[in-house]
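ok trying this again, last paste got cut off
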Amino acid sequence: MTLSYCSAMTDSEYNKTVDLYADGIYRFALKHIKNAMSAQDIVQETYTKVWVKHKEVTFAKSKAYLFTTAYHLIIDFLKQEARNGEFKEQEIKKSVKPVEDFDLQTILHEALDKLPVIQKTVVLLRDYEGYNYAEIAEITALNESQVKVYIFRARQTLKSYLKQIDLVV
């Protein structure tokens, strides 16, 4: 049995990952938890965990490792919030908004918030961060088929939600 040599991430490569991916991880966390300070904490904790293991992580795999770590921290955060009773699911707003208050960005965020966490995660990784199915599977520990199914279901739910909004506006 032969082992292939993987070069550990150097200090300068680690610093480069901060420049390349910190903003994306922050956006990813913020979309899930809706709190800027907590999202910043997720980014900081992600990089702390990666620093501890930087000798085991190659620079080539650092992006997937960072987003995987952030994903697990987000899930832990949401579970903790649910246990503490601080996480409150938003009610579907059935009130009619005047057309001048119509804001597509806000409506899309509301629609994303209606999705289960795993569906929201795969959609954000695919449509906001530009990952391919294989990378999303690696980050979320799903197989590619599961990723495709979750994305399909999420998009169907979003489409249905947006059609409801369309009837109101």
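PB: full thing came through this time. DSSP finds seven helices and no strands in the chain.
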